[in-house]
């Protein structure tokens, strides 16, 4: 009978495949063998089930182990049923599960060899699967007659390196880096890897070649991606290879290093900044309409923030009662930030201060702009692309020159130009907009005070609209 893991009123969560001989004792794994795979388990076929110790007295730990073992066994049994011939992640998982069924681990032959013993039960079953019924049948190539999963299990036991497939490398990379695969940039990286695997296959990570990398570049270009986008996609996947190959002490041939992209940057359409008159028009109309869409646009126009940074603001990120009001940009479960340098405090002046003061009155569930938060997701997700499209459509409906080369991102360009015209030092401009300042000294100290940043931002405020 399955053990109860948790109870929530009428809801009971059962621990599948886990049993215990006595209270407080070690937990055991117990699972019935399907009829069509029993012949692969001659030692357990009489009992009709797999039954062995999980070597833990913790129910939660036992459940984790049992779930992993059951998943590996499912892969094993599927491969045995279908006669799969390609070695992939499922094959290796199946081979690992097969070793587990015999109480063995990859590379464990060294322990047996040290004590001059052999894993007799495992060897007997290998002979059985290869049709070795007598010493005469044990020819030098007898292992080649093994079913694929048994052959891989034997290879792993006798010291073959366990291959790391790209799909697994992605998971390990994100775990090492603490990168959440459900939010950007983790979700973007996962999409790039999925696209690469669909084109080149899920191979052991050290088996990919420069040819695969160039094929992926050509694939991205043929799909109509801009050359800068192709470079970004390559930069998403390259660190996985660099990190995992180093972690597993595998040869790194640098297949993604210095990939040449024909006519790189020639297809880029620069976003133009708004003129002072256009900014005055945009801000004055925002003041008149005074809804959440115009509030975000007002915030962008006098802060230099990115769209995702603005719409992801929480009420706890707002500090209006300070002598110099500001918002604090930090990554959270709903919205990450583009770079480490994007974490910053942004002073609120002019249209940005007006926008946040008004938005605070209609905030919901802790978010400043709830219209652009998807509360149905867990955790909630921001809708930056949706917001950008809405902002751009509205802006281009105004009397603005060269409007097809201007968008909500143009506000960042405009803030930089206005600060530059006001002779604000580059380091201050970078601190406001979240760009990294070069040089070792830039990484020392606490940075600029919000008072100093606010004083410089006041230089670009439209005094006709905001006294």
Termini gap = 75 Å
> Which stretches are low in confidence, meaning pLDDT under 50 for 5 or more residues running?
4-13, 439-445
Strand content: 5-15%
**What is the residue-averaged pLDDT?**
85
Shape: elongated
Task: Give the helix/strand class.
Answer: mainly alpha
Number of helical elements: 17
How would you portray this structure in words?
It is built from 17 helices and ten strands. Helix 6 crosses helix 9. The protein starts with a strand and ends in a 10-residue tail after the last helix. 44% of the residues lie in helices and 8% in strands. It has a three-stranded antiparallel sheet. It has a three-stranded antiparallel sheet with strand order 6-7-8. The longest helix has 24 residues, at 59-82. With 467 residues, it is mainly α.
Layout of helices and strands:
Layout: E1 3-8, E2 11-15, E3 18-20, E4 27-32, E5 49-53, H1 59-82, H2 89-101, H3 109-114, H4 120-130, H5 148-157, H6 166-177, H7 186-200, H8 210-222, H9 227-247, H10 276-289, H11 292-301, H12 307-311, E6 318-319, E7 326-329, E8 344-347, H13 350-360, E9 373-374, E10 381-382, H14 384-395, H15 410-421, H16 426-433, H17 450-457
Antiparallel strand pairs: 1-2, 3-4, 4-5, 6-7, 7-8, 9-10
Helix pairs in contact: 1-2, 2-5, 6-7, 6-9, 7-9, 10-11, 11-13
């Amino acid at each position: 009978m399955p053990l109860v893991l948790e109870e929530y009123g009428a809801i009971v969560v059962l621990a599948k495949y886990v049993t215990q001989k006595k209270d407080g004792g070690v937990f055991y794994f117990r699972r019935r063998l399907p009829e069509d795979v029993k012949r692969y388990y001659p030692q357990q076929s009489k009992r009709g089930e797999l039954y062995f110790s999980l070597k833990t007295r913790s129910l939660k730990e036992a459940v984790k182990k049992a779930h992993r073992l059951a998943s590996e066994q499912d892969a094993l049994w599927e491969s045995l049923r279908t006669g799969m011939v390609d070695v992939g992640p499922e094959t290796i998982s199946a081979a690992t599960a097969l070793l587990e069924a015999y109480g063995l681990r990859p590379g464990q032959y060294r322990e047996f060899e040290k004590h001059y013993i052999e894993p007799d039960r495992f060897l007997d079953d290998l002979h059985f699967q290869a049709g070795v019924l007598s010493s005469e049948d044990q020819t030098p190539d007898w292992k080649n007659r093994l079913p694929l999963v048994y052959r891989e299990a034997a290879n792993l036991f006798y010291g073959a390196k366990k291959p790391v497939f790209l799909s697994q490398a992605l998971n390990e990379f994100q775990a090492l880096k603490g990168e959440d695969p459900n939010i950007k940039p983790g979700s973007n990286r996962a999409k790039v890897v999925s696209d690469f695997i669909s084109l080149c296959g899920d191979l052991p990570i050290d088996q990919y070649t420069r040819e695969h990398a160039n094929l992926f570049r050509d694939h991205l270009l043929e799909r109509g991606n801009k050359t800068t986008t192709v470079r970004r996609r390559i930069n998403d996947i390259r660190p996985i290879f660099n990190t995992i190959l180093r972690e597993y002490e595998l040869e790194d041939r640098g297949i993604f290093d210095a990939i040449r992209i024909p006519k790189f940057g020639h297809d880029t359409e620069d976003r133009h900044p708004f003129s002072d008159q256009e900014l005055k028009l945009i801000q004055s109309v925002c003041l008149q309409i005074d809804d959440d869409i115009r509030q975000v646009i007002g915030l962008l126009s006098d802060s230099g923030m990115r769209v995702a940074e603005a719409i992801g603001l929480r009420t706890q990120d707002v500090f209006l009662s300070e002598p110099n009001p500001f918002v604090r940009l930090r990554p959270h479960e709903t919205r990450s930030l583009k770079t480490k340098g994007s974490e910053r405090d942004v002073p609120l002046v002019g249209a940005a201060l007006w926008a946040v003061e008004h938005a605070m009155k209609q905030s919901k569930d802790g978010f400043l702009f709830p219209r652009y938060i998807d509360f149905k997701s867990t955790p909630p997700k921001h809708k930056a692309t949706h917001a950008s499209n809405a902002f751009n459509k509205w802006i281009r409906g105004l009397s603005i020159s060269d409007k097809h080369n201007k968008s909500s991102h143009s506000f960042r360009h405009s803030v930089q130009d206005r600060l530059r015209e006001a002779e604000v030092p580059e380091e201050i401009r970078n601190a406001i907009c979240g760009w990294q300042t070069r040089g070792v000294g830039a990484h020392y100290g606490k940075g600029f005070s919000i008072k100093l940043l606010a004083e410089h931002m006041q230089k670009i405020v439209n005094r006709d609209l905001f006294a």
